[in-house]
From TrEMBL:
GO terms for molecular function: ribosome binding; RNA binding; translation elongation factor activity; translation initiation factor activity. It comes from Fusarium austroafricanum. The lineage of its organism: Eukaryota, Fungi, Dikarya, Ascomycota, Pezizomycotina. Keywords: Initiation factor, Protein biosynthesis. Residues 16-69 form the Translation initiation factor 5A-like N-terminal domain. SUPFAM superfamilies: Translation proteins SH3-like domain. The keyword Ligase does not apply. It comes from the Eukaryota. The keyword Kinase does not apply. GO terms for biological process: positive regulation of translational elongation. PANTHER family: TRANSLATION INITIATION FACTOR 5A FAMILY MEMBER (PTHR11673). This is Eukaryotic translation initiation factor 5a.
């Protein structure tokens, strides 16, 4: 599956909310160029806000600029930690 196909399917099922760009903060999650990102940097230049985020799946740095009054999609992000109970071994074929 190509990245474009992944993002197209991902957009169809992603539950999101919206937030005005001027209310975003470092550490928030936001969709940048159809990728869910954690905001690492924010800077204002006039009516625009420059956003630098890290894709939560690939670790890729993504940058975007939006008007401070523009609504951005905010994905619901849930993180879980799990303990491995039994490592086990995989049978090998001879």
């Amino acid at each position: 599956m190509s990245d474009d196909e992944f993002h197209a399917k991902f957009e169809q099922v992603l539950p999101t909310k919206t937030k005005v760009c001027s209310e975003l903060q470092v550490g928030d999650h936001v969709l940048l160029k159809s990728s869910p990102c954690k905001i690492g940097e924010l800077s204002n230049s006039g009516p625009d806000v420059h956003i630098v985020g890290i894709d939560i799946f690939t670790g890729e740095k993504i940058e975007d600029t939006a008007r401070s009054t523009e609504c951005m999609d905010i994905p619901e992000v849930h993180r879980g930690d799990y303990a491995m109970m039994n490592k086990g071994t995989r049978p090998t074929s001879s």
